[in-house]
Write a structure and sequence with these properties.
9 strands; about 35% helix; about 270 residues; alpha/beta; 9-stranded mixed beta sheet
Length: about 270
């Protein structure tokens, strides 16, 4: 995890929030560093994590996690991490016989849209059992990333339904958290992606939006991060608080600073 980002969000591993949906999105840049932050943050917070990884392999996330001080291999062995590796699972679905419905069974269907097996996988992974094993602080669902489902032929409405049921179960019934990444395609007309992004934006309690610089590549400033936090108020409307910072990604950390206040500029 990145300590400076924890400070910006006013969070700490010893007091994670509960019942929240966090939307991560990126435009003209790679926002995967946000996924690695929340993965390492919740593992450090002793939370039970279900990670639906549709973009990269387990080894990739594990290598980055080790740089951030967590071992995904150890977390999986002790039952803290349930990891669905989309890249490997897709191969198994097509070339191996499946006795039970696979979470990504929709890949073999002519009409890709039934995400119920994936929801069932998430629910079973995060529902506590009376097995006498270690008790985790709170359940967390992490998805990297939902845009991949669209590219695989799943409609935006089906993805939003999946998020709705996961949010009701994880954030509502189990008092946990959900974090999902969605790519934003500004320069390309993509109606499904726009529907998905707008739908999730209205549901989310916290939105982190990584953006590339309008001026293009810069060695000392890699992009800017917009933080939008919604808080319930006494009235029916929700209060919104928005902050913007620029950042520079390092090997084991990310530095954040106010716009125009990069150490390289001053």
């Amino acid at each position: 995890m990145f300590p400076e980002l924890n400070n910006l969000l006013d969070t700490a591993p010893d007091r994670p929030e509960q019942g929240t949906l966090t939307l991560l999105c990126d435009a003209k840049t790679d926002g995967s560093f946000l996924v690695h932050h929340f993965l390492s943050f919740y593992l450090r917070a002793n939370c039970k994590v279900c990670f639906v990884a549709l973009l990269q392999s387990f080894s990739h996330y594990n290598v980055v996690g080790q740089k951030l001080g967590v071992s995904l291999t150890a977390a999986r062995e002790r039952g803290q991490l349930v990891f669905l590796e989309g890249l490997r699972s897709s191969v198994d679905i097509f070339f191996q016989a499946q006795e039970d419905p696979h979470p990504l069974q929709f890949l073999r269907e002519a009409n890709a849209g039934d995400l119920k097996p994936l929801y069932t996988f998430v629910k079973e992974a995060l529902t506590p059992t009376d097995s006498g094993k270690a008790v985790w602080r709170c359940p967390v669902l992490l998805v990297d990333d939902l845009s991949v489902l669209l590219s695989l032929g799943v409609g935006a409405v089906a993805v939003l339904d999946f998020v709705h049921y996961c949010r009701a179960t994880v954030c509502g019934d189990l008092k946990g958290n959900m974090v999902a990444l969605v790519h934003e395609s500004r320069d390309v007309e993509d109606e499904d992606n726009d529907i998905l992004l707008n739908g999730l934006s209205h549901q989310s309690h916290l939105i982190l939006r990584a953006e590339g610089l309008a001026t293009g590549f810069c060695r000392d400033v890699h992009g800017q991060l917009r933080i939008l936090r919604r808080q319930a108020s006494r009235s029916t409307a929700r209060q919104e608080r928005s902050l913007t910072y620029q950042y520079k990604i390092q090997d084991k950390n990310v530095l954040f600073f106010a716009k125009g206040m990069s150490p390289a500029v001053l």
